[in-house]
Amino acid sequence: MNITIDTVTKRYKTVTAVDAISLDVRSGQIYALLGPNGAGKSSLVRMLVGLTQPDSGRIQITDLGGADIQLRPQHFAYLPEDRGLYQDRSILDNLSYVARLRGLEQSVYLPRIDKWLAHFDLTDRKQEPMRQLSKGNQQKVQLISTLLHDPDLVILDEPFSGLDPVNQEHVLKVLSDLKEQGKTVLLSAHQMALVERLADKMLLMSHGKALAQGSLEEIRATLQPQRLYRVHCDAIAAQSAWSDFSEIERLHPIDKNELELTLGADVDASMLWPRLAERCAIESFALRKPGLHELYLDTIGRSQAQGDAA
Ligand SMILES: Nc1ncnc2c1ncn2[C@@H]1O[C@H](COP(=O)(O)OP(=O)(O)OP(=O)(O)O)[C@@H](O)[C@H]1O
Question: Which residue intervals define the domain ABC transporter in the entry (predicted)?
Fold first, then answer.
């Protein structure tokens, strides 16, 4: 299944929660929605699953042949932000109930429940009522309930929230497996290190607007077009020796033997190094690519500062 979201806007009374957002997710891809609290991720997801309607723009779901699909519950899984399972009923009762709602036969759903409970290390607890489980274990049961009917499109609002690192890895593996099976996965998350490992494409939103989107490389090129180098040299001497090079946007000493140089996006570094070395000896240098976490903090920090100033 493929998702095309075309210039979609959603307004609530006083706020534009989603502001002209477009994105494409193809079968076999994992797409991550990123952004601070209130950025508009859940609002976008709710429109996608048909819980609310866009004020303008278009959402199109198509099959592999390109034909439009009317999204029905059997086609997709949706893990909402507000989880809901019966607290007084056991894990097994809850999962069986959801499976029957999805139209599965007992002979199909019981082995699937067993497989998932084993995967998440919950087999011994399946008769326990939900209320006895920790938040993380409840989250695991909720995720299992979402995936039981083996849908082609999987939409997950914050699937990693409340999970410890080991269980985050389990969920990461489940999502990678879904991708391998050719499913379409769209998720929102705040765990940048996990998203960086998992997502093929991502959308970074703030105040409903897209700040950057695409692969990690594309996000990096949008948010950080300058190149950052770590340079080993006499940092104090270099600071004065290189002060009149217009190619250097920023020179930031790390310690007395290391500094970070920010070069403009169009600077040919190979021509620049010999000229710099003439003024101050360079022991070594290496290109540094900021990770998603750093890009996110820089960008969202700036966006929030601008919002505060406005
Ligand atoms: N039903 C609603 N009525 C009015 N305003 C709403 C409604 N739902 C969301 N909003 C507002 O829309 C904006 C986007 O909220 P949304 O829940 O989509 O953000 P989010 O990115 O999912 O945040 P979080 O990471 O906290 O879940 C926020 O300003 C929020 O207060």
Answer: 3-232
